[in-house]
Write a structure and sequence with these properties.
Blueprint: H1 2-18, E1 20-28, E2 37-44, E3 47-55, E4 60-67, E5 71-77, E6 80-87, E7 90-96, E8 101-104, H2 107-138, H3 143-171, H4 177-186, H5 196-204, H6 207-210, H7 213-230, H8 247-250
Parallel strand pairs: 1-7
Antiparallel strand pairs: 1-4, 2-3, 2-5, 5-6, 7-8
Helix pairs in contact: 2-3, 3-4, 3-5
Length: about 260
């Protein structure tokens, strides 16, 4: 009996030694979060699963535990996604306020939020175009002139956004950030589609990126739908194939989910 108990302890200790520890310390100045329960969720086996939870007390919250692989995750309040983060070894610091959210303290989280800051700046530039349109109308500029000017500017910002996303994913093909941002980018579409950006990514992708569960499923389904639509099967989707996101979609890109 003692030998069995000893063997069990040895096995548990060996498994624990293979795992790494994450430590997430968070603070929030958002009043509605106080007293709420937060969930740390990640995509596992193609399902969004809760891997940890905690309560916000006086603007403070904490997650801590063991994990056997680095994960791209999201912080949730009930069913509402608040922000993305990477569950990785080290001391992770999360800050939530009414203006922005940030995660720091570990390498991949630093990379992720540097990218999100640049992307959000471009997103804000896109939104600002609608404010400029209203001001130009008040200034008496005719609609055709406004349309031509702002369309060119919107296309320029969209191209810079596309380049930022593409280069970031390529640079992170072999860690969780590549598939994670690919998921964020493709979530703007109603169903899996092939775009020039996606085709470029897949033409350069490493085997590790191609074999990611989400990436491989998305690309397979996108090709199946594209083939059916090309052959005239309109039941493949209830929406038309598009090559580029529309301006209205661009404005809603990457909301932090």
């Amino acid at each position: 009996m003692n030998k069995i108990l000893y063997a069990t302890i040895v096995i548990v200790a060996a498994l624990a030694s293979c795992a790494e520890q994450y430590n997430i310390q968070g603070s929030s100045s958002v009043a509605r979060l106080d007293g709420s329960k937060l969930y740390l969720k990640a995509l596992k086996e193609n399902k969004l699963q809760s891997i940890d939870s905690c309560e916000v007390v006086h603007g403070k919250f904490k997650f801590a535990g063991l994990f056997d692989t680095t994960l791209m995750a999201s912080l949730y309040m009930d069913e509402q996604s608040i922000m993305p983060l990477v569950v990785e070894q080290g001391n992770i610091s999360v800050r939530i306020d009414d203006v922005q959210q940030s995660v720091s303290g570990t390498p991949l989280n630093e990379l992720l939020y540097d990218f999100l800051e640049k992307h959000n700046q471009m997103d804000n530039q896109m939104v600002e175009l609608s404010h400029r349109e209203s001001q130009m109308l008040l200034d008496g500029i005719d609609e055709e002139t406004i349309g031509k000017q702002l369309t060119i500017e919107a296309q320029t910002i969209a191209a810079r956004m596309d380049s930022l996303e593409t280069h970031f994913i390529i640079d992170n093909f072999d860690n969780v950030l590549g598939p994670g941002i690919f998921m964020m980018v493709t979530s703007r579409y109603q169903y899996p589609i092939l775009t020039p950006q996606i085709e470029e990514l897949m033409s350069k992708a490493t085997d590790k990126f191609k074999n990611d569960a989400y990436v491989s499923n998305y690309y397979r389904e996108a090709n199946e739908i594209h083939e059916k639509m090309t052959n005239g099967d309109t039941t493949a989707s209830n929406a038309p194939i598009v090559d580029e996101p529309t301006d209205s979609v661009i404005q809603s890109i990457l909301n932090g989910e």
